[in-house]
Give the backbone structure.
Amino acid sequence: MLDAYLSALGYMFGNPMTFVLILFSLLWGIAFGAVPGLTGIVGVALLIPFTFAFDPIEGMLLLGGVYVGATFGGAISAILFNTPGSPEAACTALDGYPMAQKGQAGKALGFALAASAIGGIVGTLALMFLTPPLAKLALTFGPSEYFALAVLGITAIASIGGGSVLKGLIAGLLGLAVATVGMDPLTGVARYTFGNMLLLTGIGFVPAIIGIFALSEVAHRYGQGMKKQEVITNVSTDLPSIREFIQTRITLLRSSFIGTVIGVLPGVGATTAAFISYSEAVRWSRNPKKFGTGTPDGIAAPECANSAAVGGSMIPLLALGIPGSATTAVMIGGLTIHGIIPGPMLVQNNADLVYSVFIGMMLANVVMLFFGLRAARYFAIILRVPYPVVGAAIVVLCVSGVFALNNNMVEVAVMLAFGAVGLLLKRVGFPVAAFIIGLVLGPIVEVSLRQGLILTDYDLWAFASRPITLTLLIISFASLLYGFWGQFRSTPPNDPPSDENAEPVRA
Amino acid sequence: MPASITARLQGTLAAAGLGIGVAIASTMPATAQTYPTRTVEVIHAFGPGGGADRFIRAIGESFQAATGRSMIPISIQGGGGLPAAVNFMQRPATGYNLYSYSPDDVINQALGRLDLSDFRPVARIQYDQALLLVAADSPYQSIEDVIEAARAAPGDIKVAVTGAAGFDDAVIGVWNAESGAELTSIPFAAAEMVSNTLGGHIDMMFEEYGIVRGLIEAEDLRPLVVFSNERLPVLPDVPTAQELGYDVTLGRWRGIAVRRDTDDAVVQQLFELLRAASETDNYRRVEEESALQYRSEILGPDEFEAFIEQELETYTSVMRQMGYAN
């Protein structure tokens, strides 16, 4: 194995262009991640034709770097403007934006970047050393395990409700309900489309997320009038200290693990990883109420997990030739065009390619950490631009970006409608996070439950009694009970508010 | 790809109400002498990097080399292909808006959701072939094992397919009717279909050869039967359903259609360009990489139309049998 790495390193040093490409692809990826609507998938797809000019190795390095960069890039706009630049960063807005609102934008970006890099490094290490066992693990996950995993994420909304378990559950169930719109994934029957064929695509969570976060925030800020626009005149670009960062170590550890494992599973990618990791961070936290108000753990958890999922999702791609995420699906197209057949023989037949990609992704993460930390503070300066200007730009980007995603005007309408929904949820104090988790995980729960039940001929016990499934379901159920118990035991009016949540800003 | 960026920008600007110039330009009719004078867009219902996307890009490369104009895929995913079809029908019939035609459209007509008389077939270019595959450690060594087991317990054997009430489902439906060895199909996303089959969660899967080639070569997946008129030269030991006595040869095909009211001369010109593009070495190479060369034979507007009529008959009766249509 060491030989293989040395040979790959030899190739890379023999072709110094590879390092330039890594740097370029990283910047390209960050830019695509940061602009709403231009996601990593688009970034990778647009670069595929350029890879014709290079060897397959350089081509793959280019695509891998974009993937790494884009996953972090989304956090920048999520933190500064509450506008997730890519779906996997939606969760980062929940705590990142409130922290930036407190004038600590530099700090928020620093947490996001460092957590991203650490998650990315852990994910890549897993890719380097644990590919065979993790690929095997991916295969042990059938519909019943997917179901249990999604249920685990959904039950965490009971803890995310912050003040009220009831409001959390209502918002979560609304999210689940909205997720059923569109074509029935198993029978192809139209559901709640009111005869509109364009709505058969369903309520995509990307348009919904952009509406709920970005558009409703712009409307909210504009609604406050001009005078309050100058709230954040004093933008601090201070980065978090090493000590502050080390305090999030347990979250980082947990999220790296969750991110890598979920990344490995085909069909669920960085977005699911971010939300489940956030849910777990809230569930195991000593101060769950701090989440949503700008706590470092709330930024570190999703950012670390979505970057770890990048390495994870390369595992089934390289070991089995099946994509772990939408972006890796596009990469498979790229490999095929180069005449490389993705599949179990890839590592044997194209060792230099595979090991160069490992090294390239590791380098991309390290580069991102060191150069990114220096650059992060300058991103924060964008906040000094008057909000009326920024707000208008955000609306334009949201509309064009959502349209560009799928060339479907109905998705723009969905985004506009969810801008109103987001505003409404905020006004009545429903946790947006719970709603989004319902929307993101709803389709997984529905499809895997139905697939699993057909497979077991509707034998519920056979479906639920598989070891991983049962364990996850028991944890979910216990945590739900614990949440209710906590609700009834505590008497909210006597809760002395701590400094951090004296003025809770629910994202 | 700068051309694709331009198309994206055009779409975006038009959506924002700024692309008035673009909109006017796209309503001007084309004539055969001048066609094509600008970029041609092909609307398809699949994701970037998927089969349809790669098909359009490959043909588009040769098309551009010959005409100097680009051909760009526009992806409108989901909803069983209907959003893409609706979007296509809203565009002017100039010959600059093409539609990537596939069996899913025929099935949508069979289900009463789409009216194919709005589409004018131009060229069928690719014709793929699918297989039933099991994991290496599956108890089923051959298709005979499956038939025997399925006849003993109809519907007990589960097969993973992609798409709900779509092409894959229809082929399994025809197989069930023809062979009496009834399989139950369960829709999965493409990647989960493979992982669930390899992981032993489901008995078998249905997929085109090119996509699972790597897994077959590594002997992780064992092909049992191929749905085609002849055995695949690369898999000489895998029987066709036809030689077992079951007439299941339906394959996924890809072609180009325009709106019915498109100028005849433009349709002819477009067909000639597409035929030339499909005969270039560059395109042939891409075709072989996806293992599509075995029965891809180009069909012109009239032959393609006749072919689709025949397909429609087949799919309509299958969809009725399966209870999806009445």
